[in-house]
Automatic annotation (TrEMBL), chain A:
It comes from the Bacteria. Keywords: Membrane, Transmembrane, Transmembrane helix. This is Metal transporter. The keyword Nucleotide-binding does not apply. The chain crosses the membrane at residues 23-43, 156-179, 191-209, 221-240, 247-265, 271-293, 314-339, 345-366, 378-400. The keyword Transmembrane applies.
UniProtKB/TrEMBL annotation, chain B:
Residues 123-221, 263-373 form the Plastocyanin-like domain. This is Copper-containing nitrite reductase. Its EC number is 1.7.2.1. It comes from Sinorhizobium chiapasense. It comes from the Bacteria. It catalyses: nitric oxide + Fe(III)-[cytochrome c] + H2O = Fe(II)-[cytochrome c] + nitrite + 2 H(+). InterPro entries: Cu-oxidase-like_N (IPR011707), Cu-oxidase_C (IPR011706), Cu-oxidase_fam (IPR045087), Cupredoxin (IPR008972), NO2-reductase_Cu (IPR001287). It is an enzyme of class 1 (oxidoreductase).
Amino acid sequence: MNEVSRIAAAEPTAGPARKSRAAFLWLILPMAALGLAIVWLVAVNPLSRFGNGAPPVETLTFERTILSDDGIRVLVRAGGSEPMTIAQVQVDDAYWQFAQDPPGPIGRGSTAWIHLPFPWVLGEAHAINIVTNTGATFEHEIAVAVPTTAHNATSLLSQGLLGVLVGLVPVAIGMMFYPALRGVGRDGMDFLLALTVGLLAFLLVDATAEAFELAGESAAIFQGQAMVWLAAAASFLLLMAVGRRQGAPSGLALATFIALGIGLHNLGEGLAIGAAFAAGAAGLGSFLVLGFMAHNITEGIGISAPLLKKRPALWIFAALALLAGGPAVVGLWIGSLAYAPQWSALALAVGAGAILQVMVEVAAYLMRSDGRGSTALLAPTTIAGLTTGVAFMYGTAMLVKI
Amino acid sequence: MTRWGPFEITRRGLLWGGVTAAGGSVICASGSSIAQSEHLADHMADHSAHTAASPLPGHGSAHGAMITVGEVDEARNGFETAKLLTEWDTGTVSRLPDGRVLRTFELEGIDKEIEIAPGIMFPAWTYNGRVPGPSLRATEGDRLRIVFRNLGSHPHSMHFHGIHAARMDGVPGAGLIDPGDEFVYEFDARPFGCHLYHCHALPLKRHIQKGMYGLFVIDPDPARHPELTDIARSRLLGTPENAEWQEFAMVMNGFDTNFDNENEVYAVNTVAHAYMKRPIRIVRDRPVRIYLANVVEFDPINSFHLHANFFNYFEQGTTLTPTLSTVDLITQIQAQRGILEFSFKDHEPGLYMFHPHQSEFTELGWSGMFDVVEAIA
Ligand SMILES: [Cu+2]
């Protein structure tokens, strides 16, 4: 409104009412043009002259695989220009009886469950090949066949426990270094903060790569690559804006942001573990669990670093640990109940944006608390901290790679 | 087994790439697959019993539900797989001035989408709208005149396995016909045997794989084989001796539906599992003769295995005595063909399977059943 009245003042011939009518008109005109274009497109169908009798482009993505006593179930999502019809299904190069739910053609972007009463073999690989009515084929490999966890109170509880074990416990253990770290001087502080940036840098690369990989597996309709970029950028900008409302964050505020960024990352991690349960692609081994734990301990140290000059109440530590580690539990549940690659990609992308924000803020905090400004960023202790952080995360990440 | 929190760690599990089956409700590794198989067998038995479309609800379970789902619309296809077995095109017969038989066949090249397995459509190129094309049958010594009109979208031809002039070879430059054109192939029917014809336009693989092939059978003329007249007469269509036999035309083929140079569907006479779902009726005490040709592209070798029985085999069908005796499996390379003779007269009635002994082909649609029955009153 401010804008409008100022312009109105500069142009005395045009009254404000007339001006707003004109603005309204300029809003309506392009809309009307768009409407006309749509009507013309539907009525004339100019695309028909491009039709050359070729079959429609088809894509089919496999989102979930469930192996159970009565066979294999896969959730598929149709993409492509027209509804798709699944004609037959091969398992390991053999046509196999199947049931589709819901039956009939699958609309663009829609999903259907395919149930195959197939006697799969524990620990072996199987290949599913869906043949559509045009003869196009879409293959999905089950690398290691293991039964998918049935969902009941017990399984959710055990998954919750697993989430606590890989998410919450290590963060809490990391925070227990707090008293030991309190006595560190300026160099020690720089080292710890740089260590935090280093570990976050690793997580950023890791989460982004993972997000792109999952985006590649998801149906084309979700435009995975763009979704990852946009979600990461949006979460980064949003958190920067929120974080900077009262100036650059430090102390508890900064610790909270670190915990939030790590929490979002752990949500993605939890989704991945839950998805592994759901997909039956792999169970979780002791290596995996221990790896995640060692990996996440550093996160606890990172969260405590900005708090070393304060002396927060114990409950604050508990809350921060919950914020950073708790999402792993939630992620595990969501991942195992309703896994689809695009949702994991989205969670990881949001997490990546959040991590970038925290990196920026921790680096800024380091410069401020050191007093030397940007010189501190290149000081030997800082570089040592950065390197140690990345190296430690890299080393422990090796434990969790299958 | 170590119990560790909510996880069960098994040694076997650790071997799977260093990960173990975990989670409180994940079942223990050993034993579960057996239990599962038993469960599945029951499940499938139930399942197939409810599959109303299958006229033989029983055998789905016996073969682990390993079958295509649904039925092919034969009316839309314009040909019935059951009839492909016994339909012979003997052409139009007239006499030449010298008294010889002139046998005239008319074929058309037609682009046609056909259903090769329930729900799977294939943009085929056909002879007379069917795949395989008509099973042409003549008698040794006939003068043959084959009029071929190309109504399709690509140049096509008819290349006959037989003895003929270079001008009649059906290759580029000698009988290849452009769309809308017509060509008349003319030659004598020899040698007797089980032959085939196919399009020889380029690219060759594509034209054959698209469906342009068929059986070309030349029956022996008994007068020319005085020492084996009876056998020759039993082969000659139209004689009482021949009527005693139950003769079937079978062309082993395959279809690459996604252009990856591998076949998604294998069959005998085009439709996957057609004779599995509707077994071929055989009267027990009458002998059986199969004219079998292999036209599968991309896989060089195909085979035929008969369950619970043995047969005699006549390589290319050009002899009146078997070239292989008492075998239950023969292999045929691309374009190889022959005649199989066997009998179920000493067997109890029932379903007897036949299939290639390449398990992959069997599982992708090429398998069938003989339904051996007592003589019908
Ligand atoms: Cu051709």
